[in-house]
Amino acid sequence: MVPVYHAVNGSGPSYIQDMVKLYTSAKQLAAPSLRGGPKFPSAKTRGFSILAPKWWNELPIDITTAESLHIFRRRLKTHLFRLHFER
Question: 59 by DSSP, 3-state: which?
Answer without folding.
Answer: coil
